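sry for the spam today, last one i promise. C-alpha coordinates for design, 183 residues
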Protein backbone atom coordinates (compact mmCIF):
# COMPACT_ATOMS: atom_id res chain seq x y z
CA UNK A 1 0.00 0.00 0.00
CA UNK A 2 1.33 3.43 -0.88
CA UNK A 3 1.80 6.14 1.68
CA UNK A 4 -1.39 8.10 2.29
CA UNK A 5 -1.09 11.89 2.14
CA UNK A 6 -2.63 13.73 5.10
CA UNK A 7 -2.64 17.52 4.94
CA UNK A 8 -1.11 19.66 7.65
CA UNK A 9 -4.38 20.82 9.26
CA UNK A 10 -5.60 17.23 9.66
CA UNK A 11 -2.24 16.15 11.09
CA UNK A 12 -2.44 18.90 13.69
CA UNK A 13 -6.02 18.05 14.67
CA UNK A 14 -5.21 14.35 14.95
CA UNK A 15 -2.03 15.02 16.94
CA UNK A 16 -3.91 17.17 19.44
CA UNK A 17 -6.74 14.66 19.87
CA UNK A 18 -4.37 11.72 20.35
CA UNK A 19 -2.11 13.59 22.76
CA UNK A 20 -5.05 14.75 24.89
CA UNK A 21 -6.78 11.36 24.95
CA UNK A 22 -3.56 9.52 25.82
CA UNK A 23 -2.98 11.70 28.89
CA UNK A 24 -3.68 9.54 31.94
CA UNK A 25 -5.17 12.30 34.10
CA UNK A 26 -7.41 13.74 31.38
CA UNK A 27 -8.63 10.32 30.24
CA UNK A 28 -9.64 9.51 33.83
CA UNK A 29 -11.58 12.79 34.11
CA UNK A 30 -13.45 11.86 30.91
CA UNK A 31 -14.05 8.21 31.80
CA UNK A 32 -14.92 8.10 35.51
CA UNK A 33 -18.05 10.26 35.55
CA UNK A 34 -19.85 8.52 38.44
CA UNK A 35 -16.97 8.83 40.90
CA UNK A 36 -17.59 11.91 43.04
CA UNK A 37 -16.38 10.46 46.35
CA UNK A 38 -13.04 9.08 45.16
CA UNK A 39 -9.76 10.58 44.01
CA UNK A 40 -10.21 10.20 40.24
CA UNK A 41 -6.46 10.34 39.62
CA UNK A 42 -5.88 7.28 41.85
CA UNK A 43 -8.37 5.12 39.91
CA UNK A 44 -7.20 2.51 37.43
CA UNK A 45 -5.72 3.82 34.18
CA UNK A 46 -7.47 2.98 30.93
CA UNK A 47 -5.75 0.22 28.93
CA UNK A 48 -6.43 1.86 25.58
CA UNK A 49 -7.81 5.38 26.05
CA UNK A 50 -7.94 6.10 22.31
CA UNK A 51 -10.17 3.08 21.66
CA UNK A 52 -12.23 3.60 24.81
CA UNK A 53 -12.85 7.35 24.51
CA UNK A 54 -12.34 8.29 20.85
CA UNK A 55 -12.47 5.34 18.47
CA UNK A 56 -14.88 3.04 20.28
CA UNK A 57 -16.54 0.37 18.11
CA UNK A 58 -19.83 1.50 19.64
CA UNK A 59 -19.78 5.15 18.53
CA UNK A 60 -22.43 6.08 21.09
CA UNK A 61 -19.82 5.45 23.82
CA UNK A 62 -17.29 7.91 22.41
CA UNK A 63 -16.49 10.87 24.65
CA UNK A 64 -14.04 12.66 22.36
CA UNK A 65 -14.98 14.04 18.96
CA UNK A 66 -12.98 15.64 16.17
CA UNK A 67 -15.63 18.23 15.35
CA UNK A 68 -18.21 20.23 17.23
CA UNK A 69 -21.03 17.88 16.27
CA UNK A 70 -21.46 15.44 19.11
CA UNK A 71 -22.96 12.21 17.80
CA UNK A 72 -25.78 12.12 20.31
CA UNK A 73 -27.63 14.72 22.29
CA UNK A 74 -26.24 14.30 25.75
CA UNK A 75 -29.09 13.93 28.21
CA UNK A 76 -27.58 11.79 30.92
CA UNK A 77 -24.80 12.45 33.39
CA UNK A 78 -21.72 12.58 31.21
CA UNK A 79 -18.71 14.58 30.12
CA UNK A 80 -17.24 14.93 26.65
CA UNK A 81 -14.60 16.84 24.72
CA UNK A 82 -14.37 17.99 21.12
CA UNK A 83 -11.57 19.40 18.96
CA UNK A 84 -12.26 21.42 15.82
CA UNK A 85 -10.58 23.85 13.46
CA UNK A 86 -11.62 27.49 13.96
CA UNK A 87 -9.36 29.20 11.43
CA UNK A 88 -6.56 28.28 9.04
CA UNK A 89 -4.65 30.75 6.89
CA UNK A 90 -1.28 31.86 5.64
CA UNK A 91 0.83 33.58 8.27
CA UNK A 92 0.88 37.30 7.67
CA UNK A 93 2.32 40.38 9.28
CA UNK A 94 1.82 44.05 8.49
CA UNK A 95 4.53 43.75 5.83
CA UNK A 96 4.20 40.32 4.22
CA UNK A 97 2.31 37.07 3.85
CA UNK A 98 4.15 33.76 3.97
CA UNK A 99 3.52 31.16 1.29
CA UNK A 100 4.94 28.42 3.50
CA UNK A 101 4.05 29.19 7.11
CA UNK A 102 0.44 28.52 8.07
CA UNK A 103 -1.32 29.73 11.19
CA UNK A 104 -4.33 28.10 12.76
CA UNK A 105 -6.66 28.39 15.69
CA UNK A 106 -8.11 25.20 17.12
CA UNK A 107 -10.92 24.95 19.65
CA UNK A 108 -10.98 22.31 22.35
CA UNK A 109 -14.42 22.20 23.94
CA UNK A 110 -15.58 20.56 27.14
CA UNK A 111 -19.15 19.71 28.11
CA UNK A 112 -19.79 18.51 31.65
CA UNK A 113 -23.14 17.62 33.23
CA UNK A 114 -23.77 19.39 36.53
CA UNK A 115 -24.29 16.05 38.35
CA UNK A 116 -20.72 14.92 37.65
CA UNK A 117 -19.14 18.34 38.01
CA UNK A 118 -18.03 18.08 41.65
CA UNK A 119 -15.24 15.64 42.47
CA UNK A 120 -12.78 15.23 45.33
CA UNK A 121 -10.25 16.72 42.91
CA UNK A 122 -12.32 19.91 42.47
CA UNK A 123 -14.64 20.88 39.63
CA UNK A 124 -14.20 18.40 36.79
CA UNK A 125 -14.46 21.00 34.02
CA UNK A 126 -11.88 23.30 35.62
CA UNK A 127 -9.55 20.34 36.22
CA UNK A 128 -9.92 19.38 32.55
CA UNK A 129 -9.15 22.93 31.38
CA UNK A 130 -6.07 23.06 33.57
CA UNK A 131 -4.88 19.65 32.34
CA UNK A 132 -5.47 20.50 28.65
CA UNK A 133 -3.52 23.74 29.04
CA UNK A 134 -0.67 21.89 30.75
CA UNK A 135 -0.54 19.19 28.05
CA UNK A 136 -0.58 21.64 25.15
CA UNK A 137 1.93 24.05 26.69
CA UNK A 138 4.50 21.26 27.06
CA UNK A 139 3.73 19.14 23.99
CA UNK A 140 6.67 17.86 21.99
CA UNK A 141 4.43 15.80 19.68
CA UNK A 142 2.25 18.43 18.02
CA UNK A 143 4.00 19.31 14.74
CA UNK A 144 4.27 23.09 14.99
CA UNK A 145 6.80 25.90 15.08
CA UNK A 146 7.29 26.37 18.80
CA UNK A 147 4.67 25.31 21.31
CA UNK A 148 0.97 25.72 20.83
CA UNK A 149 -0.25 28.75 22.77
CA UNK A 150 -3.54 29.14 24.59
CA UNK A 151 -5.20 32.32 23.28
CA UNK A 152 -8.36 32.19 25.39
CA UNK A 153 -10.62 30.14 27.63
CA UNK A 154 -14.31 31.04 27.55
CA UNK A 155 -17.73 29.72 28.51
CA UNK A 156 -19.73 27.99 25.77
CA UNK A 157 -23.20 29.49 25.70
CA UNK A 158 -25.00 27.09 23.36
CA UNK A 159 -25.02 24.05 25.65
CA UNK A 160 -27.94 22.16 27.23
CA UNK A 161 -29.23 23.66 30.48
CA UNK A 162 -27.86 20.92 32.76
CA UNK A 163 -24.34 21.22 31.33
CA UNK A 164 -21.38 23.52 31.78
CA UNK A 165 -19.33 24.13 28.68
CA UNK A 166 -15.96 25.73 28.10
CA UNK A 167 -13.89 26.34 25.02
CA UNK A 168 -10.14 26.71 24.80
CA UNK A 169 -8.64 28.38 21.72
CA UNK A 170 -5.20 27.12 20.79
CA UNK A 171 -3.06 29.05 18.30
CA UNK A 172 -0.10 27.60 16.46
CA UNK A 173 2.04 28.06 13.37
CA UNK A 174 3.46 25.37 11.13
CA UNK A 175 5.23 24.75 7.87
CA UNK A 176 2.85 22.96 5.53
CA UNK A 177 5.50 21.32 3.33
CA UNK A 178 7.33 19.46 6.08
CA UNK A 179 6.71 15.74 6.31
CA UNK A 180 6.34 15.36 10.07
CA UNK A 181 6.22 11.56 9.82
CA UNK A 182 9.92 11.58 9.03
CA UNK A 183 11.01 13.44 12.16
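last one done:
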Amino acid sequence: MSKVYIDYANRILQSIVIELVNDDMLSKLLYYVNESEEDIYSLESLDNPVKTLYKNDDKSKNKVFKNKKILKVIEEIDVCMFVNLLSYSQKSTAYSTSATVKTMDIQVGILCHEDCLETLNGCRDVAMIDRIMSILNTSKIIPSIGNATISSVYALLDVPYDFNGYGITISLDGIRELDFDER
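The radius of gyration is 17 Å. ok im logging off now
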